[in-house]
What does this fold into?
Amino acid sequence: MGRMTAETVTPPARQILVVDDDTSLREHVAKYFSDHGFSVHTAADAKEMEATLAAAPIDLIILDVMMPGEDGLSVCRRLADSGGPAIIMVSAMGEEIDRILGLELGADDYLPKPCSPRELLARVRAVMRRQDEARVGAPRRGKAYHFLGFVLDTLRRQLRSPNGATILLTAGEYSLLSVFLENPQRIMSRDQLLEAARGSDTEVFDRAVDVQISRLRRKLHASTDEEIIKTYRGAGYLLDAKVTRP
It folds into this structure.
């Protein structure tokens, strides 16, 4: 038997869970992603989704909004609050207010139906790329950012409050906070934040930044009275804190 080397080891396929009560659509999306190298699981509702999450290490969920029983928005809020997998929501409700609500509840991206499998694949790859970059993107010195008593551990991808409690962040919130911490005391425009946090190849509307920053502010302000992220109307946002990387 030949000796196995690091070069010959194939990394495991990324695991995706498609949650949609439309059987034909669910199977079509599952086949498309399987054909592109993903390990795909499917669920018709929140109950089946929970069983799959308990049995498999899911990297990302493609989640429909309108489902019987617990709807997708409720599922999204619950998973985001508990630090669950990345979520891309898909829904026939494609108005901007619906997309904003999905992002407000913790989704990493939101696509209106009908969407092409090719576009959905591009969005999934973009979210996963941001996840991978966040996991390995350690600061130039040390492996943590310290600011106003908070600590962002880039290896564990974990934010700790001044009293030591863990603050759960979505992938989008983590990416934005990382950009701010790399650019403290500097006004960042929406475009700069979008490009740095999400990548210039991802189409995200401006309001997505406002929503993610609003969520991030609430989580930070739950542990301090300091106004950490300031708004400069017409210019952008600024992280008002001294940041160290021991």
Helices lie at 23-35, 46-55, 72-81, 96-104, 117-136, 171-182, 190-198, 207-221.
